[in-house]
Amino acid sequence: MTAIIGWDLGGANLKLAQLEEGRIVSVTQIPCPVRQDRGKFDAALEEALPLCPPSSRHAVTMTGELSDVFADRAEGVAYLVAMMRAATGNETLFYGGRAGFLSAEDAIARPLDVASANWHATAALVVRDCPSGLLADIGTTTTDLIPLVSGRPARGYTDGERLAARELIYAGVVRTPVMAFSRTAPFAGLVQGIAAERFATMADVYRLTGELPDDADPYPAPDLQGKSKEESASRLARMLGRDASEAPLEAWVELAGFFAGLQLAELVEAGRELAEREALPPAAPVIGAGCGRFLAHRLAPELGRPYRDFADMIEVAPEAREMAARCAPAVAVARLAAARV
Question: What is the pLDDT of residues 132-175, one digit of tens each?
């Protein structure tokens, strides 16, 4: 049986999921180098293509069109669609969210439907199993909080609409700078200001708390140094204008817990607002996806709701289970495309 490859073309990662006979058998994430040229997408695709079996069919969603290497989203969509079409053929389908799957020509003609529609693919798959709930896809860079109501996802559609509706929070558990969450922090019995610099990221925070999966951060650290707890503590100390040697490691772990608490508090506040706005029933669960779904685990009891994992909602090989949950949009477009043919 022909394999279906689901692609999620992100600005920081390219993700692909392979579906065979109704089951996800492999999922791969390839970092897109952080550089100011469009070739980063082509390089990641070149690395990914040998992983696809011959005669595979392809279904694509994206967020990479928002990258600042493009003048606007329409230009980004056109570039990524043309890139995939040249690599995978004329039969490739492009996910247009509310417009369904589109041909390459139609995808280029409808960029606002195709742009950053990957969240919609995940939601469209999840509602088939869970028509009411709060989908929390917490990734390296962003968090999708998507109310699922009577089998339909959310109110907002574009990134701008979703940011306004609090259904998109532009913060994740890896690439987001620590300074995004506060201008002050407690240390040594005082509350002090912090540097408005990208000295440390939330990956450093969650390495120190011990929650970040070992392979969830494929990007260079801000100082291009290593990723041990001690090196993360050095970067976090720099946010306070200090050296890590000024305090024991436990003090920096405590400071990391402060920033982690701020991120969770933002999710709890937004989650409560969305659940009340949409009148979600008390038994409607939080559905966790993404490499940061350890936060979704913590969010569910804060909201008084049960928790379900995205990986429990799909047929997936045991060895691919973790990556399938992290790369939910790629999995979703593969499964949605399979249901279409």
Answer: 999 999 999 999 999 999 999 888 999 999 999 999 999 999 99
Exposure class string for 143-182: b at 16+ Cβ within 10 A, else e: bbbbbbbeeebbbbbbbeebeebbbbbebbbbbbbbbebe
Instruction: Please give the Cα distance from 78 to 67 (Å, whole number).
Output: 13
Residue 121 belongs to a domain: no
Of the candidates 20, 9, 5, 12, the residue with the CA atom closest to the CA atom of residue 88: 5
Position 123 in a domain? no
What does the pLDDT look like over 186-217, one tens digit per residue? 999 999 999 999 999 999 999 999 999 989 99
Domain count, the chain: 2
Q: How far apart are CA 153 and CA 97, in angstroms?
A: 11
The domain of 106 spans 4-115+313-340
What is the sign, positive or negative, of the torsion defined by CA atoms of 147, 152, 153, 156?
A: negative
